[in-house]
Each structure stands twice: as structure tokens, then as C-alpha cells.
């Protein structure tokens, strides 16, 4: 294994889901847990990076780095907010890895509040992650974009609605094992999924992730503190044109492929070395695309792993043991940081009833828009 | 002189001011000029960082890193958007310096469109840079915040409205020499300033910067390309609590002092080595506070330099030879990048009729909100 590019010293996360808590309250809860987990004080922190997407449209509060860094008062720390749509959190973690060139013990906080805005206004705000000028205003909102991805995958590879249902069932089952997941739907079954109304054909209600509030925090360092420190072996970000209409394929995100390739190269691994994956399943079809972009399966072949149960906990390559975005929740700016939190728990063997046995290398995959930005992190290895 | 932490290989900037151009059009214009200035092709670029503040509220378009990096198609570059209120641009440049640990020839693009939103809606949107919960909604908007700063400075140090007028006159005179400035008011004089309506006492119309559209771009590298490459000797960012009500003083921004101290230490200079400064004069009073925070004058003493004409072009320490935000314009996310553009021109001797003679060390100072975030860059030295 190569020298890790960074270590995660501590991690914290609120439960994802609707809440009356404010952005500073959510951030503080995650920060306190991360500091406690790392056994650090606020004065040990060297910089603060805030991942957030909708602070402006949903909260009328920008400049959130000042709000969040101000929770550690008197320190005048370097801080900024990172926004890359739904990949804001993962990109913020990548920035922390880069910023180790100057700072240490960098606190990355992903935070989002979404439940305070509803209906068409929220649809419009989320749509700001996509091409507003040509796509979103014309009605090609996010469910519609991912419906195009699904239709293309069905046409090219013979994927079926039943494959998507299996992903939904798996992720809801996993979320039931995660106390910080958005959904704990003990009774969810095939009949419930079949009864879900269509959202954008072929996607039905249970193919779509929920709207969540929440925060997650991790502390990134250039050096191992103790045996609980989790190495980051590879960290990469790539981007693409914002609209599917500008690309040559709808069944793969080139930015995800580029980020995975770069992260694996840095980590000196290939996809066969990966024991578990936390991937960006904003819609069930996105989990299939993610598995293929991460080279966990050949193009069009991820469905085989799903049908065989190989992506369940206990399978060959568990995907979204946390419940994923689909059932664990999607608090946009917090999601990518929450994937790192989950990976830390898995790699330490602290994931309780959803623990992936023998987990020693994990990958976290966070997507903005319909693949306009993607981050990939490889964690684990040398403990 | 120490080894520079980075070099600016090329710089470009649109004129600041109202325009019908869109964000991608503005960004493209600045990018093409920066690439041409650096004699680089798009495929030489290693990463793209976008500084922008109001993409969400003003444009309904977030994920601007994908939009802007997508102007260099087929490259799948690492990219993200940085937001730190009005310091978004300066912080984006700092991030590029940090990211040289992994990438090279980093394209930093600051871009903002403001003239498409007017009146109370724009006031509300700009207010998102301040504390929305307690300050802005209660009426303590940005002119009111800086009026408190001015009243405090008047009370503590005997500063007068006439001092602020001198700053306004100087910056309008400088802007007349800058073809890319927002204002070219050939006739602006004392009588015009006196006739300006009060905005928030003691600030009148000519104490306030305008609402500008615009973009600026710079290319940051770890190595000198040729004799036109401009060294960055120091780069720092610091933050503070967001509201003046949370701080012990209104006449200084601790984040600016912390950033200046860190940047000067990295550059191995003190303030007496500085030949010119581009500072964040969103209001005239902010120029005085900036000079004191940058240690160009002792606290309360910056007025003496202004009264003596020492901050004019040809004076001992020219401040805002570009016209500053006040008259050069304030296209928020572009402003901090535009300060680097101006510094590059000055240090190369390419600033035309506003050239500061003998300019060899310059400082750029960019503030978010009322000092919630500040970046300071020291440029020049070893050419």
C-alpha cells in the first residue's frame, strides 16, 4: 500500500431526516461528535471547510463558513464554503486533503436544511444543481433526468424495474440497521414498492431518495493519531458539462469514471480490492450507474450482482450498508461527508448490526447534478 | 525574499459594470484573456476553481463549477465553486495556492451577475452575506453595518465625513484611468459628492460601491513560466463570527488582521515593504479600516495618509489605483480575483496611466460581509 494522503481522526453525524433544528445547531451537533471522537479540542483545529448546497435559496443565508467557523469562536481560522451541488460534501473532503499542504486537523462540516421549504419551491431550488437555462425550466428536473438515465440503461442493457426494486428493498433493509438513517420503515416490502406512484417513468416513489436535513463532520490530518485513525488512500474530483444533452452517453458519468480512475491510481488499488462502497444513489438507477462507473461491475453488468444479492451486507461487495441516500437520507451538502463517516465506522468495525465483515478497503462516491461533478475517496488499508 | 508559494502566469478581466452578458459569457471572456496572457491552451489547465456569491439567489443556477469548467469541454477537470460572501474570489485564489500540492496551472475564475436583480430583492440577496437571523431582517443591512463602523471610527479617532469624501474622489479619479472600471465619471467633484443623498448616516451615495456584473480569471502555477510570471509571496485566509454584535470592536476586522499577519510572515515582509495596495472598499470607511488592518497605518491614523494625498497614485502608498470597489466596481465573486489581475498589471508595469512607479511589492485584501472572512495576498518581489 502507498503512503496515505491523509487520515480521518474523527467523525460525527446527526441523524438525517426532517427536523426543526437550524443549520448552526445541526453543524454543532456533528462537530461536537467529531471532536469527541478524535479526542481533540476546538483549538486543535487548523481550518474549517463547509460543504453546503442550498444555504442561499433555502435559508437566505450565505457566508455559512463564517456562521459555522464562528461556532469555534476566538480562533479566526481559515474557512470557506464549498459548493458543487450534491457533491459539495465529498468535494469539501477533497479540498481538505489538498489543504494539508498548509493546515492540519482540518474540520470538514457538511450541512443542509431542506425540510423548511416544500413543493414547487423546493423542486426549483434543487433544480439549481442542473442546467437551469435549457433543462430545468423546460421540465427536465432531477427525477426526469434520472428517468432518462434509467430508460437508457433499460434499452442498452436489459435492466428492468424489478432490478431497481431490489436496490430499494436492500437499501431500506440496511437503513433499518442504521440508527442515524432517515427511514426506519420496518414493514417495507415488494407490495409497498409496487403501490408507489410513478414520479418520472420508469422511476416510482420508492426509487427516489427523500429530502433530508442533517450534518456530518470529519477531521482530516496529515498524520495518524492512534489506531482509530482511518487512512485516506486516494482522493479525487472530476467534473463534466452540466447537461445530459451535452454528452454522448446517459448510462455512465465520465466525471465519476475519471475520479475513480484517479483515486484508484493514487491508492494503488483496483476495484477488486474494494470490500464495500458507499455510492450516490439519489435514485435507484444511480446505484447501478455508480457501480459500473466505479468498475465494481462491467458496464451493464451491475444488475447481475444485485440479482444475486452480492451487494447486500454479507454479499461479495456490499453497497450502501448505511442505507445510502435512498433510505439513509440525502441532506445534500452533508451527504458526501456522511459517506466518509460511514466508511470510518465500517473500517473501524464500529458499524454494529450493519457491519461489513472483514472490511479493510472502502470507497465513497458522491455525485453533483447528473454527473456534473463527482468525488471518489478510497479509505482503509494500513491500520 | 523567500521562495514564492505560487506564480500568476496569466490574468484576464472583463470590464466591471452592468451588462446583458450571462455568467458563462462573462466567465469565458475572462478565461480567454487569461489563457492568452499566459500563452496556455485549455488542455494545459489542471483544475478550475470558481468564485461566486449570488449564483443561487440571483441566477437560480448553482453548480457553477460545472457550468464554467464545462467551457473547457472534454477535460473532466477537478473543479468546485468557492463561496465566502464578498471574499469568494480572494479565497478561491488561496485555495488554488493550496491545491498546487496536487494540481498545476489552476484556473481561478471569479464571476458575478447582479444587475439582473434590482431593488429590495437585491438588497435581500446581498444581505445573505451577513447575519440573516438577527441583523439583516431587523434592518441592519450592509450600508447600515458599515455606517456603524464609520460612526465608531468617527467617535474613536476623530475621522470626519470629509476624509471619506477624499477617498471617494481619489477612487473615482483612479477609475477614470482604468478602462475596465465600472465608473468613468469625468466630472465627479466635491459638489457632486455633497449632493449625494444619505444612504445610512454618515454614509452618502458616493461612499458606497456600485452593483456590478463582471468576471476575472487568473492562472496559478507552482513554477515561473517566464519573466511575465508574477510571484505570490504570501497567501492567507482568516474568518470571524458573522455579526458585529458578536465582536468587541467595530473599527477593525480581526480576520483581516490575522490574514495580513499570516501573509506578511509567509512573504517575509512587513507593511513598510509594500508599494501599493488593492483593498476592499465596499464603502469608503472600509478603505480606512483596511489600511489599518493591513498595518499600512496605525489604528486611527489612516486618515492622515489620506489627507496628505499619500494614498493617491504618486503618493507614498497608493491604495486602489484601479479605482477600488468604490469606482472600479464590485462584481462580488469576481472582486478578489480582479484585485490579483490589477496587482499583476502593476507589478509588470502594464497599468498604463494608473501605473504606480517602482511597484515591486503589492498587497490584495478581500473581505466577506463585515469581516466574517478575509483573504490577503502579497505579490511581487523576485522578478
Q: Could you characterize the architecture of this molecule?
A:
The structure is a homodimer of 383-residue chains. Chain A has 383 residues and is α/β, with parallel strands linked by helices. Chain A has a domain of 124 residues: Peroxisomal Thiolase, Chain A, domain 1, CATH 3.40.47.10. Chain A is built from 14 helices and 11 strands. Chain A has a 9-stranded mixed β-sheet. A two-stranded antiparallel sheet of chain A has the order 5-6. In chain A, strand 5 and strand 6 form a beta hairpin. In chain A, helix 4 crosses helix 14. The longest helix of chain A is centred in the last third of the chain and has 17 residues. The first copy, chain A, is globular. The N and C termini of chain A lie close together (11 Å). The mean pLDDT of chain A is 96.
